[in-house]
Amino acid sequence: MPDPLKYNKNFDKLTDEESALFEINKKSISDFVEQSASLSDVNYATRNAHAKTYAVASGKFFISKNIPEELQQFFDKEEYDLTIRFSNAHLKISRGKKEIPAYGFAVKIKDEKGDLLANYPLVNFPLFPINSVSTFLKLFTSVNQFYVKKWSSFSLIAQIAKVIPSTLTASFIKNIIKLWNKRNDFILSFDFHSVGAYRLGDQMMKIRLSPQSVDKKFSKNKKSKEAIGDFFKLKAFTADVYIQLCYDLENQPINKLNVEWKNSPYIKIGEVRIEKNGLLDPNSCENELLSFNPYESKVFFQPVGKIQKLREEAYKVSMTTRVKINKLLKYNR
Questions:
Q1: Does any domain span residue 34?
Q2: Which positions of the chain have pLDDT values less than 70?
Q3: pLDDT in the model for residue 332
Q4: What pLDDT, on a 0 to 100 scale, did the predictor assign at position 152?
Q5: Is residue 3 part of a domain?
Q6: 1 found inside a domain
Q7: Which terms in the Gene Ontology molecular function aspect does this entry carry (predicted)?
Q8: For position 227, which CATH number holds?
Q9: Pairing of strands 237-245, 103-110
Q10: pTM (2 decimals)?
Q11: What is the pLDDT of residue 331?
């Protein structure tokens, strides 16, 4: 294999137009979070994406003994402490039994001193349907305004229509079919992905987490939150962690998120493990105050790419608004 491509800050650079649209979007995020309690009919402010928390767990990240020598500098300990949040991607909290199978597996990695190393918000769909920052910001703003200001659905539909062409790649269609076939499977049986790229020092990577021996039909007739609780009362969870490195932009594009990376082998770097009874108190207020902003990570683990760059301020706005409201309410769940 050739040498990995090096990170360049130009991968993240937004245009003036994109920056202006982002300012409008941040205001819509704040407005949404401020009204999120009433929108989801709960007594606390929620996130403006992945609002529903299924569970929060403590875990461990064990580094493989045969990790490639050139990667050892980034993983110089045998194990790391984890905080993991399982969630649903919907903006609102649904109380119905049937939910869209769009799941989150957000991971917070800390060292032996408890200092944060990295946040990785992983999801069970490896691609993102939008490559254009402007299109994404207009759509996301329209979605927030649709809920908060009760704007006409015509505006939202018009923005959604602009996204459709970028979902017609072979990679995207293949993964949509795969997700459809797994739509009723147990949440912990899914692979979870980083979607966009992240730094690994001067290199760039994507991440995949693959569960070991999880029954996809576990607690088939139960809601995901209850099924996860049942699972950890009975057994532990283990998943392999793989990365892909970026060698060239044609085969591993940074700012083209609707196609899979190819010609980059998966490298196993370790395992994530959550022990039996590893779930934290589901009624803790702290669960909703957790932040998984990937830009809070050490600089050599931070996101790469224009769409990824939006997460930095979006997470801050959402978190700041959520914390302000929730600490004021001092809610009890």
A1: yes
A2: 1, 96-97, 151-153, 283, 285, 329-333
A3: 46
A4: 61
A5: no
A6: no
A7: heme binding
A8: 2.40.180.10
A9: unpaired
A10: 0.92
A11: 46
Query: Side chain identity at 129, as an amino acid letter?
Result: P
All residues at 6 or more sequence positions from 163 whose CB lies less than 8 Å from its CB, including other chains: 129, 130, 135, 139
Confidence at residue 183, expressed as pLDDT on a 0 to 100 scale? 92
Rounded Cα distance between 58 and 23, Å, is 35
pLDDT at 242: 98
* Domain count across the chain: 1
Domain residues for the domain of 281 are 9-329
The label of the residue with tokens 């017609």 reads 168
Return the closest-CA partner of residue 317 out of 97, 33, 82. 33
* Inside any domain, residue 49: yes
Please give the Cα distance from 214 to 212 (Å, whole number).
6
Q: Take residue 155 and report the two structure tokens written for it.
A: 């505006």
φ, ψ at 142 (rounded to 5°): -65, -40
Provide CB contacts within 8 A for 226, sequence distance 6+: 219
Quickly tell me which residue has 């199978």 as its tokens: 101
d(C-alpha 193, C-alpha 210), whole Å: 9
Q: pLDDT value at position 157?
A: 84
